[in-house]
Amino acid sequence: MRPCPNDPLTAMTATTAPQRTNLLGLSREQMEAFFLSIGEKKFRAAQVMKWIHHEGCDDFEAMTNLSKALRARLAEVAEIRGPGVVYEGTSSDGTRKWVLEVEDGSYVETVLIPADNGSRRTLCVSSQVGCSLDCSFCSTGKQGFQRNLTAAEIIGQVWVASRSAGPQKDTAQRAVTNVVMMGMGEPLMNYDNVVPAMKLMLDDSAYGLSKRRVTLSTSGVVPMLDKLGDEVDVSLAISLHAATDELRSELVPINRKYNIRALLDACHRYLAKCDSARVVTIEYTLIKDVNDQQQHATELAELLHELPCKINLIPFNPFPHSGYEKPSRNQVMRFQQWLYELGYNAPIRTTRGDDIDAACGQLVGRVKDRTKRHARYIQSIQLDAD
Ligand code: SAH
Ligand code: SF4
C-alpha cells in the first residue's frame, strides 16, 4: 500500500517520490494527527511513542502490541530515523560525548555530564548547526549559521544518549535525568522545531522529565520568549554576561535589538506564566578584564535585585583567535565573593570533559565537505579522547 497523497503529513513531505514520515520528532499531538491521517485511532500515538522513546526502538516489526497489518503499513508510510553516531567517547571525569551526523552530513555534538554525587546526568543538547547571533566570545557564533536542526534531530540527541543505557527503567536509572538546551545554536531562533522536541522531553510517553529538569538557555530573543511562555513550561536560563547595554551589545549583539530592560521585563512575564520557572538562571561568562571587575559585580547585583533569579558563573573557555582570555581562578573566586557580599550565592560552572573537547558552549560542528576533512576530524577527536 502506498502513502495516501491526501494524508496531511505525507503531503507536507511529498516531493517527487513519496517520502516516509519520520516519527522520531513528532510531539504527541503531531503523532495523533499522523495516526488519524492513516485511518488509525489516536491511542496508537502513545503506544508507538513508548516504543520509540522508552525502548529506543527503531523497527516497527518489534512493536509487538501492534497488529501485523499495522506494523506493515507503518513500515511503508513511516520510519524512525535517528542521527548516525560517528563517535562516542567518555572523558576521565565521566562526561560522555557523542558526535552525531545529521541529515545533510553536518555534525552536532551532544554531551552527557554526570553530577559529582551521581544524582543527575545532564544532557547538553544542540538546536542549530552554527548560530547566527555572533556573540563575540562564542566559538559556535564564530563559525556562522548553517541551518536549523529538525525536531527529530533535536530529540534524536536525547534518543541516542538514552538508548545507550538500554530501555528506560525507573527515573533513577535513566541515562538522562536533565536536559539543557545549551549546545550549539540559539534555541529561540529555531522555535518551531525546539518546541515539539521539548514537549517530547516532558511527555510521559517519551522522556517524562519534570519541567524543572528541562532548561532552555537563550541570549534573549524577546518575542520568542513571550511565545515560549504561552506554549510550554520549562526552566529558563538567560545568557546575560553584562549589566550595562554598552558592554552587553558588544558581547551579545542581539542586545542592540532587545536591550537588557526589554529582556528582564520578558523574564518577569515568563515567570508570571510558568510554574516551572520560579526563578530564572542568569548565566554570566567571566572574561578577563572585560566583565570580571568589582564594579561589574556591583552593577550586576543592582540590575538583578528585583528579578527572582540565581546566577551561574562560567569562566570563559578560550578558543583560538577569540581575542579574549580566561580570568585567573583567584579572580573568579573574588568575583564570586563580591556577589556573595551583595546577597548572591553564585556557583561557578566548572568545565567538564576537557579531555574530549566537550565543554558546554564550546561545541563546534563541522559542515559537510567532500574532502577528507571528515575523517581527519574524527581522527583528531579520537586522539583528544585518548
Ligand atoms: N544560544 C544559547 C545557548 C547556547 S550557548 C545561549 O546563548 O544561551 C550556552 C552557554 O554557553 C551560553 O550562556 C553562552 O553564553 C555560553 N558560552 C558560549 N561561549 C562560551 C565560551 N567561550 N566560554 C564560556 N561560555 C560560553
Ligand atoms: Fe549563539 Fe548562544 Fe553562541 Fe551567542 S552564545 S553565538 S546565541 S550559541
TrEMBL record:
It catalyses: adenosine(2503) in 23S rRNA + 2 reduced [2Fe-2S]-[ferredoxin] + 2 S-adenosyl-L-methionine = 2-methyladenosine(2503) in 23S rRNA + 5'-deoxyadenosine + L-methionine + 2 oxidized [2Fe-2S]-[ferredoxin] + S-adenosyl-L-homocysteine; adenosine(37) in tRNA + 2 reduced [2Fe-2S]-[ferredoxin] + 2 S-adenosyl-L-methionine = 2-methyladenosine(37) in tRNA + 5'-deoxyadenosine + L-methionine + 2 oxidized [2Fe-2S]-[ferredoxin] + S-adenosyl-L-homocysteine. Keywords: 4Fe-4S, Cytoplasm, Disulfide bond, Iron, Iron-sulfur, Metal-binding, Methyltransferase, rRNA processing, S-adenosyl-L-methionine, Transferase, tRNA processing. Its EC number is 2.1.1.192. Residues 117-357 form the Radical SAM core domain. S-adenosyl-L-methionine binds at residues 185-186, 217, 239-241, 317. GO terms for biological process: rRNA base methylation; tRNA methylation. The keyword Coiled coil does not apply. It is found in: Cytoplasm. The keyword Metal-binding applies. Pfam families: Radical_SAM (PF04055), RlmN_N (PF21016). Binds 1 [4Fe-4S] cluster. The cluster is coordinated with 3 cysteines and an exchangeable S-adenosyl-L-methionine. Its cofactor is [4Fe-4S] cluster. PANTHER family: 23S RRNA METHYLTRANSFERASE (PTHR30544), RADICAL SAM CORE DOMAIN-CONTAINING PROTEIN (PTHR30544:SF5). Specifically methylates position 2 of adenine 2503 in 23S rRNA and position 2 of adenine 37 in tRNAs. m2A2503 modification seems to play a crucial role in the proofreading step occurring at the peptidyl transferase center and thus would serve to optimize ribosomal fidelity. Reaction proceeds by a ping-pong mechanism involving intermediate methylation of a conserved cysteine residue. This is Dual-specificity RNA methyltransferase RlmN.
